[in-house]
């Protein structure tokens, strides 16, 4: 989709969403409930909500979103309908987050990367090399502190429901990258937050924050030299067809977050909140299973397509180079960094 068309559809969807939510929360059709049901105040109401995701239809997060929607529908006996809008069709992540804060879009699945500009605690996930492995990351995400971080979104008008998997992010470029030194002077697209800008500066490159949907054409036209992401995104967004040098440095593990607009959430009955929360938690299993599958498939595709892959055996030189970033933010994130360290044991 052209940028102008995309913007128009994002604006249209805001207007549309706003009227939808008015209809939903203003108390539409109260379906009579069977006797013995003395549930909370909005029980029996029907809702039609939208969930935005930047990824295409068969991507693990979208499959997770769909599982979530299906479970909500089932648990509410068809009263709560959630339609999934993939492909960034409701706007890029930053503008979707803004729409969610307003209540114009009711649900979204976004990366913690862009969320960091809206909710400072989530910035911690953009710090480099804080997790040793997927196990370490998930041990933290499932810990009390990890759950508390989801809840911290409330201060920014969002209700965090669940984490989804997003693996580890690595650099890729149209120019060769054989070691950490080769990023020097390269223009690298990053997710939109300040920590990422500091990260690229520490590596000697220049950061270009921009929405995900613009990365492919920017690589093609040379607006940027490279970018960084997990391998499923590198493949599904076709970046691997243009930026054919991949270095598996795994500098970040930035989880995905499934969340609701707090404006919408606060109007739901306790029973409906419970339904939605349970469905979100249950959908994690689907997303993570799809994630594992897609990581393997992407790896295969990359190997078959002539991408030059450099494995990083020793991340020490990378860690040393990005240390100024950790030093800059250590005090801000002390509590959570301690909890992440504790999850290592
Ligand atoms: C992907 C995330 C997606 C982000 C994208 C990005 O799944 O939500 O938008 O990275 O780099 O891994 O912007």
UniProtKB/TrEMBL annotation:
<dbReference type="GO" id="GO:0055085">
    <property type="term" value="P:transmembrane transport"/>
</dbReference>
<dbReference type="InterPro" id="IPR018389">
    <property type="entry name" value="DctP_fam"/>
</dbReference>
<dbReference type="GO" id="GO:0030246">
    <property type="term" value="F:carbohydrate binding"/>
</dbReference>
<feature type="signal peptide">
    <location>
        <begin position="1"/>
        <end position="23"/>
    </location>
</feature>
<dbReference type="InterPro" id="IPR038404">
    <property type="entry name" value="TRAP_DctP_sf"/>
</dbReference>
<keyword id="KW-0732">Signal</keyword>
<dbReference type="InterPro" id="IPR004682">
    <property type="entry name" value="TRAP_DctP"/>
</dbReference>
<dbReference type="Pfam" id="PF03480">
    <property type="entry name" value="DctP"/>
</dbReference>
<dbReference type="GO" id="GO:0030288">
    <property type="term" value="C:outer membrane-bounded periplasmic space"/>
</dbReference>
<protein>
    <submittedName>
        <fullName>TRAP transporter substrate-binding protein</fullName>
    </submittedName>
</protein>
